Amino acid sequence: MPPTRRRLIALLALAVVVAAGLVVHLVLPSSDAADIAGDALYTVAVYAGLVVGFPRLRPLVVALVAGGWSVAVELFQATGVPADLAERFRPVALVLGTGFDARDLVVYACAAVVAGLTDAATGRALRRETRRPGAPPQGRSA
After folding, report:
1. Rounded distance between C-alpha atoms, residue 41 and residue 44, angstroms
2. Which of 15, 32, 71, 130 falls between 20 and 30 A from 26, CA-CA?
């Protein structure tokens, strides 16, 4: 998929994911399901943001970086620093969270895998769609 097209799709996905994350955070009652949804959306937002900034990166690389970032933020929460920062400026909690939860590490990994697989599948589908009828597959000669 051309980088410009991938970037536009990721930008649209990022807008939808951020909106969904705000709904989960501001509208839904506090629950395990809302927490898991918010964590998954966080990692998908990181993934989409990376694709917007670096559209030529392969889905596997983006998934590893997005998952790694999310895990690093979660581990940082164990220090208590994000909670202290969030007390001073509440929006910090939307980016850094406030408290460590080991379950979140699993959610981040799953979300990164799903985002990467979705990105790869979307790229394959769009490449198939743009091929001319009767033309050989990309990368191969007749």
Report:
1. 5
2. 71
**pTM for this predicted structure:** 0.85
What residues contact residue 7 under an 8 Å CB cut-off, 6+ apart? 51, 52, 55
Q: What are phi and psi of 117, to 5 degrees?
A: -65, -40
Mean pLDDT of 78-87: 94
Q: CA dist 3 to 17, 43, 86, 117, Å? A: 20, 21, 36, 17
Mean pLDDT for the chain overall: 91
Query: Does the structure show a pLDDT above 80 at 142?
Result: no
Residue 119, CA distances (Å) to 40, 128, 137 in order: 15, 14, 20
- For residues 60 and 47, the answer to whether their CB atoms sit within 8 Å is no
Give, in order, the Cα–Cα distances in Å from 125 to each of 87, 128, 130: 46, 5, 9
Three-class secondary structure of residue 134 per DSSP: coil
